């Protein structure tokens, strides 16, 4: 098939699509820098005008002009920013700050932010300072991006040095909880048959909750994680109290203080289920684009760690099997050698016995003895009697070579009787 100029093949398009998705996730996480602007008038720094980005930054509920900045944003006074404005107004010298921390809002709504900003004096026609222009760019997302990349790099290094999977997953969960305050992370691992999910890591969830969901089935309507695993797609539950997926787990979630759960499946490169990655919240909440991008990023990292773990486990199992096979082979070889040595010993003993029997038969041929073998037992034996045997108790009998050999091998203290041995009478008459 001839390639069309300017078009990518399907094989080339897949990596390109994955790369584009990764870029979109990073853009969602890090955002784009937005400049904030405000114009302040007089020594009281009355807010004369500001752009929408400024009001979005301080909170739309405070989007008002004509008020002193200290009244509109009282939190700035204790942080020294109003004093800086006074200094610029008095001196007429601009002030520039780089990556400066600003705490915006108060109480539960307080937010940490970082800015590059400039306080620039405004002057009238005569050169007198009449106010100040505030120009700034929020760098919070840049700082978060740097922190995220550092944490992510540390996780990848852990995976590369083959750190235990539980250590990697626990570290990943804590990293995300630090990056996204208020989030409680849980990672569940799929069984080999992908029909159940087992506890992987959840450092901030109660132990009773982790034990209760350990081993839950994958299936439609089985909470957020069981359903996400079944669908192989993210499942967003914004309010556990009302969502039917949580009918069987609602009381458990309420006991654990959980109100929302967003679950993302962790998939292998071949599409197989490895587990689920869940982000819980203590209040009902709809995820933002940054939340979803963070979930996709770390679900991919978890997939890498889990697949690496599976590979290492398979390698260890194969090595153990090989060692076991080698040990078994060595044992079989040893047993074979022992059996061969024993067989050789038996053969040598049998040859020696046969020689003794032939010699005894020749020596006893002229001695009086019965005609037939006496060692045939109840079935009898019609073979000629050739050799006399005796035991330590004084019993003696004549037999054929076959039965004599059998008796010597199976009866204790049986030996070939010979006049040359002298017998007990010879000993008594010494």
From TrEMBL:
<feature type="domain" description="GAF">
    <location>
        <begin position="164"/>
        <end position="316"/>
    </location>
</feature>
<protein>
    <submittedName>
        <fullName>GAF domain-containing protein</fullName>
    </submittedName>
</protein>
<dbReference type="InterPro" id="IPR035965">
    <property type="entry name" value="PAS-like_dom_sf"/>
</dbReference>
<dbReference type="InterPro" id="IPR013656">
    <property type="entry name" value="PAS_4"/>
</dbReference>
<dbReference type="Pfam" id="PF08448">
    <property type="entry name" value="PAS_4"/>
</dbReference>
<dbReference type="Pfam" id="PF13185">
    <property type="entry name" value="GAF_2"/>
</dbReference>
<dbReference type="InterPro" id="IPR003018">
    <property type="entry name" value="GAF"/>
</dbReference>
<dbReference type="InterPro" id="IPR029016">
    <property type="entry name" value="GAF-like_dom_sf"/>
</dbReference>
């Amino acid at each position: 098939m001839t390639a069309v100029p300017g078009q990518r093949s399907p094989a080339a398009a897949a990596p390109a699509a994955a790369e584009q998705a990764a870029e979109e996730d990073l853009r969602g996480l890090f955002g784009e820098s937005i400049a904030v602007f405000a114009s302040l008038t007089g020594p009281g720094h009355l807010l004369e005008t500001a752009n929408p980005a400024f009001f979005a930054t301080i909170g739309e509920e405070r989007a008002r002009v004509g008020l002193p900045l200290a009244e509109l944003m009282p939190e700035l006074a204790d942080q020294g920013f109003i004093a800086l404005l006074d200094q610029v107004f008095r001196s007429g010298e601009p002030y520039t700050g780089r990556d400066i921390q600003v705490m915006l809002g108060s109480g539960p709504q307080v937010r940490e932010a970082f800015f590059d900003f400039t306080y620039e004096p405004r002057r009238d026609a005569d050169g007198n300072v009449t106010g100040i222009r505030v120009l700034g760019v929020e760098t919070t997302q840049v700082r978060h991006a740097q922190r995220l990349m550092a944490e992510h790099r540390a996780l990848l290094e852990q995976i590369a040095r083959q750190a235990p999977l539980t250590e990697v997953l626990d570290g990943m969960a804590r990293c995300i909880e630090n990056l996204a305050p208020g989030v409680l992370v849980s990672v569940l691992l799929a069984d080999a048959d992908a029909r159940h999910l087992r506890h992987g890591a959840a450092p901030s969830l109660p132990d009773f909750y982790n034990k209760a969901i350990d081993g839950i089935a994958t299936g439609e309507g089985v909470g957020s994680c069981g359903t996400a695993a079944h669908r192989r797609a993210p499942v967003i539950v914004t309010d556990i109290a009302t969502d039917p997926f949580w009918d069987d787990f609602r009381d458990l979630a309420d006991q654990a203080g959980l109100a929302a759960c967003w679950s993302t499946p962790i998939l292998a490169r071949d599409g197989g289920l490895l587990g689920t990655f869940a982000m819980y919240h203590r209040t009902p909440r709809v995820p933002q684009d940054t939340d979803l991008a963070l979930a996709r990023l770390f679900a991919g990292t978890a997939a890498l760690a889990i697949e690496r773990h599976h590979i290492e486990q398979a390698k260890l199992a194969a090595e153990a099997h090989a060692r076991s096979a080698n040990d078994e082979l060595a044992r079989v070889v040893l047993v074979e050698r022992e059996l061969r040595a024993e067989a050789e010993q038996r053969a040598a003993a049998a040859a020696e016995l046969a020689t003794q029997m032939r010699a005894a038969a020749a020596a006893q041929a002229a001695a009086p003895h019965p005609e037939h073998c006496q060692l045939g037992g109840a079935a009898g034996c019609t073979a000629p009697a050739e050799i006399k045997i005796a035991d330590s108790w004084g019993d003696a009998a004549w037999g054929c070579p076959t039965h004599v050999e059998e008796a010597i091998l199976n009866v204790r203290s049986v030996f070939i009787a010979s006049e040359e041995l002298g017998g007990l009478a010879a000993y008594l008459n010494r």
